[in-house]
Batch of 2 targets.
Target 1
Amino acid sequence: MAALGSPLRTWRGLLRELRYLNAATGRPYRDTAAYRYLVKAFRAHRVTSEKLCRAQHELHFQAATYLCLLRSIREHVALHQEFHGKGELSGGVCWLSGSQVAPAAWRKGWEP
Amino acid sequence: MWRRCLRLRDVGRRLLNLPRSGLTASEGLGPKLPTPIRAYVPPAERKRFYQNVSISQGEGGFEINLDHRKLRTPQGKLFTVPSEALAIAVATEWDSQQDTIKMYTMHLTTLCNTSLDNPTQRDKDQLIRAAVKFLDTDTVCYRVEEPETLVELQRNEWDPVISWAEKRYGVEIGSSTSITGPSIPARTREVLVSHLASYNMWALQGIEFVVTQLKSLVLTLGLTDLRLTVEQAVLLSRLEEEYQIQKWGNIEWAHDYELQELRARTAAGTLFVHLCSESTAVKHKLLQG
């Protein structure tokens, strides 16, 4: 079985990501279908007398996978906007475009 | 040294007929220059054209509504998914778009569209064959012979996953340093083909997608069987890159960018497989005593 960490940590991470997603719209994240579904799913699998409940583990795995999805999309978009957002050529030929982004990106790459 | 670099930059600019001040996508070139060269401008992104996103249940499954419009696939079919959780996740993707719609962040929507439209026109057997074919060049089976530290790292990190897969499915996989890769016995292929045949068409699309991203069927099986987390599987897939990064340094705008993109795609594919293959059944436990 995969080492997932504590369900509480995953739950907190999911709430954080839902807050980020809804920050731009200004709508509270508790109003979203995703939040309501996650609350229902976590509650449904909380009560069990078995120590190793496969269904519980499956839910936690899916929740952790969804958290990874939301987090990595957010970080990917942030990196895209910081380094690739101006539509210039990427990689080694950045310097030809003369854009201000390229030299900074190269400098950042060589920082210790 | 810097003067030489600046001189080279000027030579480069002159070769491409670029003006000294540099070129941006919005500037035009004067009529005297023969061949205008513009920086690549990606096609304009679609603006967000809807206020509310909701889901509803129709005949074929769950549908996504953007305001009063029903979402459709690129080929015009009604967008319907079999699972409520998947529908909610897709609706969340659409609702999280801000001013413009960034399709490259909407991996679950893309996977659903692929499953509904099947643009490559592949049937179940073809999808299974495509996934099992990766075993011949599976990342975790392909070993280097040097440097010694990388050889040891591959052995320590990849051997346990291969042993797990061999025990779990009762097959032989092994690893190889040969350029042709490991020789996979026919029986191993048969067993894995019949295992994958137990998945439905949608889940298989997801499995084939993850295999293509990670370049490994063994790691994908680790994900579908809850043996590895997405972060672990991505790390194992990128083991040599991580080794080189530790040695030579990290370049945020390249390495981290690729890492986050791979994590996002793998997580989307894994979640897609799980949500398409589960069946929710409520079992009431008998109260004792």
Target 2
Amino acid sequence: MSLNSTPLPGTIGAKQPLAKSSSLFGQSMQKLLKNKLAITGLVVVVMMLLACFIGPFFSPYTDNKVNMAMMNKAPNLKHWLGTDALGRDVLTRVLQAGRISLTVGFASMVLSVFIGSLLGAIAGYYRGIVDQVIMRIADLLLTIPGLPLLFIGGSLLSEWKVPTEYRMYIVMFMLGFVNWPGLARMVRGQMLSLREREFMQAAVVLGLRDRRKLFNHLLPNIFPLLIVIATLNIGGSILSESVLSFFGLGVMAPTPTWGNMIDAANNLIDFQERPWLWIPPGFSIFATVIAINIFGDGLRDVLDPKQKR
Amino acid sequence: MSAYLTKRISYMLIILLAASLLIFSLYALTPGDYISNNIKLSPERKAELREIYGLNKPLLERYGIWMKNAIHGDLGYSLAQQKPVLTLFNEYIWNSFLLAIVSTFLTWLIAVIVGVVSAYKQYSWFDTLMTILIFAAMSLPSFFIGLFLIKILAVDLKWLPPGGMLTTGTNAVGMAYFKEVIHHMTLPVIVMTLLGVGSLSRYFRSSMIDVIKQDYIRTARAKGLKESKVLFRHALRNALLPAITLVGFELPALFGGSIIIEKIFNWPGIGQLYMQSFGLRDYPLLMGFTMLLAILTVIGTLISDVLYQIADPRVRLH
Amino acid sequence: MKKGVYLLTSLLIVGSLVLSACSDQKDTASTSGSTTQTEQGSKDQPAAAPGGESGLNEPFTAADMSKLPAVAKQRTDTIIVGLTDPSGAFTPYFTQSGYDGNVNSLLFGSLVTVDEKGLPIPDLAEKWDISDDQLTYTYHLRKDLKFSDGSPMTADDVAFTWTIQFDKAYDGDSMVPTLPVKGAQEYKEGKAASISGIKIIDPQTISITLEKPNATALVMLGDKVLSKAYYGKDYKFGQLEYIKKLHSTPVGNGPYKLEKFIPGQEVRFVANENYYKGKPKTEHFIYKTSEGDTWQYLETGEIDYSSFSATTENIDKLKSLGFVNIIPYTPSTYGYLQVNLEHEALKDKKVRQALTYGLDRQSIYVDANQGAGSVANIPSSPISWAYTEDGINPYKFDTEKAKQLLEEAGWKEGAGGIREKDGKQLSIHFLGSKSKQTDIFIAVAKENFQAIGVKFEPEVFADFNSLVSKMESGDYDLVSFSTAMLTDPSDGLVQFLDGEIKAYDNPKLKELYEKGLATSDIEERKKVYKEIFQLLNDELPIIFTNYKKTVYGYNGRIDNLAVSPFVGLANSLPDWSLKPAQ
């Protein structure tokens, strides 16, 4: 099977199944626009993206320069969100951190959803030996618990001489890789169930080709599920990145991420006395993840052919 | 069924064997060993100790020794804790289990209720409110929400203890002991439930919505069945079906402990022990623990598949 | 120069630190969070806590005991102290973590202990003699010593304790086996049935003979004593497996007995009625397992005592709690950057000096830590009797001087402002453990080194073990470390001589080191160490960074609390008593 004919299942921007019918696409857009909650989510995500990727250009503090005279200052006119323990501007760092956290979240979601749904669908559809091979590999990876695997992966990084600058990509890869087997199982389960449905039996009777059955009939049917999983997954990956930072396995200082910014304020004194150190990154994670999730949820309602209001 | 089980169990054993080799190699690849913790040792002393602990043997030989002992039920002796690995498991796992079983129960209970009601009353104010609340709970990093609750509920308001499992120095027994443990586990259970309930209830809502739209539900309604009967007898059963695969997956989580939660709440569980042991490269313990999880995962998967078949006879097992 | 103290990494991460490893030379280094040493403090202020930067120079007495949380008020005969992670194996010499060392320092007494200056004082031994050739040490035990099970303690037990550390199966981290004890090698190789250097003179007297003088031997050998009747019952040469079964049921001779160990939660002690100084004043003592930030436990009254980095805000917060007494304290350690002397550029003394001048240590270790530290320039803690600033170059932060030294060393500015020599760029690959202190170091050092034309490539490790193995692979230029607790001035020098710092070989230092150990006369030794410090301060085989500065906060109800910089709270604990709550 050629890769380019495969829709990127579950990515937010996956237009292929939508674009094939402009009227359906138009309908969907209309429905989506009516869902205020989802649109709010979308607006927040877009604003967050814009702020993080464009915002830092307008900041006078992008060099992240240490300034001992400005340590731990509360928010003021010059530093809207105050400064951290090294006198760096918190606002600028939160935005720069957002770039990394968002990129890591999206990229690892794409990776795991792509691998997971593709392999899951193939296994569920073809069954037999293909199913066995894929699922046994998934089983094997599933038997090794995720966090320990990430610990080992994190420790191996230095052995492989991965330069600190590239850690971000490795983190993405690790998160994406850890997630796919579970996803594949779920997709496969759904496929197995779908195969038994009447419309598939009809497709078989009609003598449709495998590819057509898989991509025109089966995948669109698991699409709602994939959307839900993919959205939860982006959020989950952003959260996982922060957890990795908490354990010191994520992206390393001085490169800021939301996770390691919260971790840097991880003590009772900062928690009590200096809320500007942890509220901005904490709120950013919270707002972004909740917005992504709500938007994805709205998208699901729209994309699900079975949904009716 | 029994032929199926035999086949599955032999698969399981092969997978476990493959997993044990993979895990063993991964740990062996991890830089550093137990001896390198102590940088004060002279190179000669380090060599001596590696000899004593057998760390200088080739990888496959070490794996062979480990495997041989493991088959005989001996998971080895923790280098850092100076106790047999199995004894340590016994000391720590039940504490983890306690947290996990309570929070898993609460998670499923809340998730099913919220999921079903949300689906049934899709787009109602209840659904919207729940959607927002659930997404809110899912959108905070676990360590962050944990630290935050400790600050508010334990340090500022002093309603709950900040961590641990018992009041230090307590001599409580019986009911008093029980109450004390409950008091201490409230915070971690709240956090674990909050974290778990989100995706599960979305999952239930989503499959419930699917099911409600199915023909047989319409048929059931057309037959004039009572709405509650339709909902619980027909819809819920089918909606829970995909979730059944998840039941088995909970198994390792029940005994594996939560590294993050235990660390934050200073809970004497296996997750915390694992964390410390990883830093120290206490291989017997790491290997034992990871394999334990692997075994539980494999058993959990089997349970899932069997349950799946019982619930949905259309799926044939091979 | 202010003398003060600070620790490299550990303390800051969590803002506070629980007790940790004891006097063993274990686990050096600035590992993150909780793996390192340190406890201690002192009532009557060891020499070096002056210094103006920090907010606390004198003990502070709780101002408002009515704020004491109810939990802490209710305790009448129990004192609780936090301890990171005791494992439950409490046999001295066999413990695998310093935390277990903290536990057994209460369960076992030593023949000789040290006072606040690190000088030997009697404990289980009432006196000792050292032969004129400095080779034979004779310990005279007190009369009627008893183990906690009531059995008598004699010279036999001491001989047994020494002997098993030379067994070939001994896998502990005691430094005793490194001593040149006469006949020890033959015993270890199985050629002799006993160690010829150990002589039991009578039940109260025992002597041990070395092949070479060593001024640290008196204290090292005069450590904790194991009961032969209990720990040696099944001993056969080459077989120490049996002792593992006894780890969780220690029989000691210290102020407390083990009452109960609750894994991952508590170590409970009860006063030992057989202790030679008499039963301790407080019946129960508990080490509570507590990871990470101990603020919450002190604040809620769950523990009575904890150590914190001496930052202004920590001190202010402790004071504002109202029920906490505070004592400032200077740990007996120093922080440093290990330099990879096998790398061409760093072999040049001028480059090492340039890096030292070019690094703003004042900002990194003092200012960014709100005064909870000071800059170090010699391999000795400021509280050591050997400490000196005489003839020591302070390497005050000076970018110009650094540039000039690099020019002299032949490193000229090249593309992108990075210095080059023979077509190679001057870059520094730094390794550090994950901690707040490392974050500070990287942020500041990056700017500092850029200013002098040195490329800076930091790498941070989540766990100490990965860092060590990276270092052992030789792929580094600088690594950030802190020493374990140093008792004798020679302790801080061992690393320059035993091959730990690779490619450093200085015959002059070796000669001086031997000279420093050859005599027990303090004044004589002071002179030798001054010379050594001046030598190392100039040569910089490692870059000295900082001293840490901490405070102890404890429940105001506790009386007679003192913490020794060298043996922690073990010496004063028997005297701790609880005042009635208000």
